[in-house]
Amino acid sequence: MKTSKEEIIRSSTKLFIRKGYHGVNLTDIEAEVGITRGGLFYHIDNKEHIYRESLNRYLIMVDEIESRFTALRADSVKDFIDLYNSLLEKTMADLSKLLAPTNYSGYFSFFLLAITEQEDLIKKFDKINADQVKLWTNIIQKGIDKGELKKDLEADAVAQLFRNASFGMCYFSSVNKGLQPKQLRKMTATLYDSIKK
Fold first, then answer.
1. Spelled out in words, what is the top-level CATH class assigned to the domain 59-195?
2. CA dihedral 160, 112, 66, 154 (to 10 degrees)
């Protein structure tokens, strides 16, 4: 059976998450994938190449996720929150398939190591965060303008609350059992109830 580059990257990513970049060597990757060194080098140049590909697919793939979030359209803030939570749940479910049988804490470590060693990632994640806050700000402002939310709210501050709440839960969940959808929905519903008119 022929091994694809995608299989190599997926299996390598699982190793990087479990053992960290420095704890993985090419022999580990060969064993995990079930491929010879020649077969491995047919698809990749070196371990750094696999690592960069792993980051592109499983950390920087946030671009793809980001475009899904940005494309969300809703008539009300309440509907937007529901759509946002559903998409976040789907994203975390997709991630859990990659992680099995490892856990979220390994992914969190993978993320932290990547942003400390790859300066371009910090800029990318800063932009993603700014775009997310802008998305929330726009929907909050529309809610204020339409009379769904209290008039005296500062849209950007409320937007930051929603963004930090969902983002923070994802990171808290990384050291726990993964995202708890009911808890996330309860928290965002409570936030919404505190700002609705």
1. mainly alpha
2. 10
Cα separation values, 107 from 19, 101, 133, Å: 10, 12, 24
**What is the maximum alpha-carbon separation in the chain?**
65
Which residue ranges does the chain devote to CATH 1.10.10.60?
5-54
User: Could you report how far apart the first and last alpha carbons of the chain are, in Å?
Assistant: 61
Query: Between vectors from CA 124 to CA 49 and to CA 58, what angle results, nearest 5°?
Result: 45
Cα 17 to Cα 120: distance, rounded to the nearest angstrom: 20
Residue located via tokens 């050291």: 175
pTM assigned to the model: 0.73
Take residue 122 and report the two structure tokens written for it: 């910090």
pLDDT per residue over 51-100, tens digit each?
888 887 776 555 555 566 666 778 899 999 998 888 878 877 777 776 66
Query: Where does the chain show beta strands of DSSP type E?
Result: none
How far is Cα of residue 126 from the mean position of the Cα atoms in its chain?
Answer: 13
Half-sphere exposure of 118 (CA within 13 A, CB side): 20
Pair 110, 17: CB distance under 8 Å = yes
Fold of 5-54: Arc Repressor Mutant, subunit A (1.10.10)
